[in-house]
Design brief:
The chain has helices at residues 123-135, 141-157, 187-193, 223-227, 256-265, 298-305, 336-344, 349-356; strands at 2-4, 12-16, 25-31, 35-39, 42-47, 52-58, 61-66, 71-74, 76-81, 87-94, 100-102, 105-111, 114-122, 169-170, 197-201, 212-213, 249-255, 288-291, 294-297, 312-317, 320-326, 334-335, 360-364, 369-371. With 376 residues, the chain is of the alpha+beta class. It has a 7-stranded mixed beta sheet with strand order 5-4-9-12-13-2-14. A 6-stranded antiparallel beta sheet has the order 8-7-6-3-10-11, with no helix packed on it. Helix 2 (141-157) packs across helix 3 (187-193). The longest helix has 17 residues, at 141-157. The chain is globular and about 80 Å long.
Amino acid sequence: MLLLCSNLHGRSIWVSLYNSLQVRSVVVSAYNGPLIVSVDGGVQYTIAAGQAVYATLCDGGIWISNMQGQTGSFKHVTVQGVDSSAIVRLRPVSPQAEARNYEEAVSLAADIDRIQLINRVDEERYIAGVIEAEAGQGRAREFYKAKAIICRTYLYGHIDRHENEGFHLCDEVHCQAYKGQCRGRNILPAVAATQGIILTDRKDSKPILATFHSNCGGETESAQNAWQNNLPYLAPVADPYCSSSSNARWQKTVSLDDWISYLVKNGYKLNPDVVTDFSFQQLRRIPNYTVNKFTMPVRQIRTDWQLRSTFFSIAVEDGNVLFRGRGYGHGVGLCQEGAMEMARRGFKYGEIISFYYKNVNLVPVNTLQIRVPEFD
């Protein structure tokens, strides 16, 4: 269905929870207020504050039991607060995972070898939860405003990603990290201050690929180098703001013999009669490591050796290869630690965004037409 975004405002986003886990049993408890449990479309009972029910996958259904011994098997279960202050708390026990708090409603459905857990949550509360999961608490308000716009842009650019699975987005980094209720005091006001604003490409007026990473090491990477995807708004940017941050520098050491074996395995022709310098320097980001006439993408080296970034130089010292690296992450788009520093120095959110993303517009989402999947 094609809907104007002005008609979407205030609607629920469906987010798959613990998406990478095959949850077969979970404790559902009432935090800060009572919950209403609806089973297979009808209201069954209330979970009092501080009480819990146990949901277990069994014979194609969800077996529900509470502390009073009431039980039953159902296909669909929905749990939501009696009022807006009540929180649904989930704690998977098979397999075990951390407990998390969710606002509004959580649905449980019997799926193949798992219980499908979905949080139906207001768009702005979802965005606030993503910001806290991705960036943490205690940041400057202008940084949170910039992050809100980026997260909202991602939401509308990928809202049909999991349509065939019955939800909009998952809670993993495959979409956007989301761990439920946001508790950061500065985050919700920042989301509200940028309500409805997203980033679009000036060329086609579509939501941009609003990527971000932890630390760029002093220069962001182009989408072309990272993914062979020519997106002019994701061009390299010299960034002086992240150089003193925690993820600005890293090192890793491997033996020279292991390094040579790795290169040979990947096509390098070793000549024992020639003294070869395996060192490598990146003063600015370049796409390939080169030794003699052999080249190899730095992104492949990063993956194979589990390096923090592709922005590294190599020195050969005492029979070892020493990686001296800069930054953390793929390096494309907004550098979070750089943006945090910009906000601390007094830059406004629009200035932060325009520093990292080129040739983009800040536009109200209600001026666009976006197809949004609807679920029962």
